[in-house]
Structures are given as structure tokens and as C-alpha cells.
Hints:
Chain A has eight helices and no strands. With about 200 residues, chain A is an all-alpha fold. In chain A, helix 1 packs across helix 2, helix 6 crosses helix 8 (about 165-180) and helix 7 packs across helix 8 (about 165-180). Chain A starts with 11 loop residues before the first helix and ends in a 15-residue tail after the last helix. Chain B has helices at about 5-15, 20-30, 35-50, 60-80, 85-100, 185-195; strands at about 105-120, 130-145, 165, 170-175. Chain B has a two-stranded antiparallel sheet with strand order 1-2. In chain B, strands 3-4 form a two-stranded antiparallel ribbon.
Amino acid sequence: MFFKTNYQQLSDEALMQHMSKGKSKAFDELYHRYYEKMYYYFFRMLRQDAAKAQDFVQDMFVKLIERPQAFDVKRKFSTWIYTIASNMCKNEYRRKSNQFSNLEDCESFPSQALTIPSQLDQKIFNKHLEVAIEQLKPKHKVCFILRYQEELSIEQISQVLDCPEGTVKSRLHHALKQLSKQLVQFNPKAPQNKELS
Amino acid sequence: MNNNYEQIEQLMLLKDFDELNFQEKAFIQDSMSPEAYQQQRSILIESKRVLAQKTPLKGTQLSSLQAHFEATHRNKAAWQSRKIPIYQALLFAALVGFIVWCWRPVQIETSVQKEIVYLPKVDTIFQEKLVIEEKVVYKTKFVEVPLVLRDTVYIPSIDKEQFYQEKENPTIFAKQIPKGKTMKDMGDLMNFVVGAD
């Protein structure tokens, strides 16, 4: 009561509790902790559309302001916020594309192997890798990004997506196999679809 | 492979196929060929690098979110800090008190006549034999019931030994109780006593 609260030292969950009591400093601290992470997550999930990613981050924080009580204090905030973000992306996929009726059932974009000459520099390879990641099925892509961009553990991903850990591993395995298949031309020694298909 | 995904992923991130020891090579070759391992390893490492590359952020929307936060919590605080006149509070308290008094519970002593407790008694000699004893326990129990107005109804009880009622006649008649039998009525007994035969 008599001492000034140091919000930087509080956990995310404690900040959420302060936020629901109307402490704007707690909100500022949470915003600084998560704005960048969430922006890059949306940026990657929404086909690298910077403007849309910014809008989504804004919307997500507005949701947080309006319904802080929706946060279950028993859960970890860092996984809960990714759950919200993933659900927003899922809704966006549903809204945007007529091809997708459900994230689980949706088909990938045309996935024929890219026809790229074998001798290309790193920059071009990276570009094609980015395209290949974009072309992953959404359910594989979300796992891949949460794992290798956001560096969440398998357990955390399973909590975010509310699915078993085995499913997450299977999706990661499929994503990696799909990327290898699409970029097989960059490794002429690799057997054509021997193990990859 | 799904079960071993994390181990394979760790090896891929750390070592080339040639750098693996004998056991690790055998473990990998259970799931894929060395070429596929190398291909997936390079994809995994490059993916992590590509996903770690971040385009600079344009700017944050913290100020607009802060304004939204303040507006949301100002409305909430205004509602919470609304003043209620003392007479309204007193009237409300009196009303609540009256309702509580009307519906106060009353203690009525009731006696539960019989409660059967089954005492299982295991025969230690013949294990299969289970003797169940019945024990009657008399208990007094206090039951709280809401206070309600009750009318007293007296129900007459008729002793069937002393009264009788004819069919389709509401009148109840008293039975004429015979005073006893004389020795005259019981000829056989009389003869036996006096030894007439």
C-alpha cells in the first residue's frame, strides 16, 4: 500500500491480476513483454502481412483490456496468450479462404516441388524456404512456427493448441518432411522421395 | 518417429550424420536414411535462422491502447463508486431484514424411531461366510424447517374395540360389552364341576 509496486519484477500472471484491478502500469508492462513476440507470430502466420499483423496485435490487446477476467489464473499466461493468437489466426483462415472450412481438415496450397536450379546462393534458398513454410498446411505451420520461431516446448504447444503431445510431434515431423520434399532440389545427393514421401 | 521426434530433432540441430556415434547412427537409421537426415537437418537449421530474422517494427500502438484501457476502467470505476443515499440504503437493509426474519428457520425436535445399522462381521475361519447383524439405534435429530402458518386439525381416533359403524350410516354406535358368562350358559362345565354324569 505504502510502497510503489515494481511491475517489472512481477510475473505475467500477477500483472494480469493487477490489470484486472485497473492498474494501467501492469498493462504497459505486459504490452512491452509481449507486443514484439505477438507481432512476429501474427506476421508469420498471416502470410507476412505487416499491416494485418499490427491490426491483429492491437485487437488481441483490446480483447485483453476488455475481458481480463477471461484469463484463468491457474494457467500460464505465456501459453494462454498464444492460444488467443492461434484462435484469431484460425478464425482469419476460416473467414478468408473458401478452401478452408476447418483448420484440421483444410488442404495445403499446391505443393508440387519447386523447380529451382541446384546451384543457388543462400539468399535465394532462404527465400524459397520462406515460401515453403508459407505453403505448409495451417495446422502444420502453426506447430512449426511455435516450435522454431517462438521456441515453445512440445508440451507448451500442446497446451496452446489443446491437442495431445503426440499430435504436435506428428505435425512437426510432417512439416519438416514436407519442407524437405519441397526443397529437395537444393540437396542433389538426397534421394528423390525415397524416405521423404 | 513421432515418439522419438525430440531426440532426433536434438541430434539434427547438433550434429552432422558423420559426427554421430555408432548408437546414434543406428537410432537415426531406424527412422530414415543418412541422406534424409542430412536434408532435414539443413532445412531445420535454416528454418530456425530464417524464422529468427525479424523485420523492424514500424511503431507501437501503446498510446491508443492505454487510452482504451483508461476509458474501459473509468466506466467500471464510475459504476463502482456511484453514491447511494443513506435513506435508500437503510430502506434496503430494513427490507432485507424483514425478508430474512419472515423466512427464518425454526428448530423442530423430531425423533427418528429406528435406524438400522448393518454391522458386517467377517468370519475369520470360513472367509466366505459373511454374517450381517442388525442393530437398532434410536436417535434424536433436529430438523430445521421454514416457519409457515399451520392450522391445527384434530383427527378423532376410534377404538374399534368399543365402537362400531354400520355401512352407509355415519352414526357411530358403542358396543355393548358383555359382562361375562354364567355357569348356566356353560352347561358342560357345570356338569363337570358338579359331577352330574
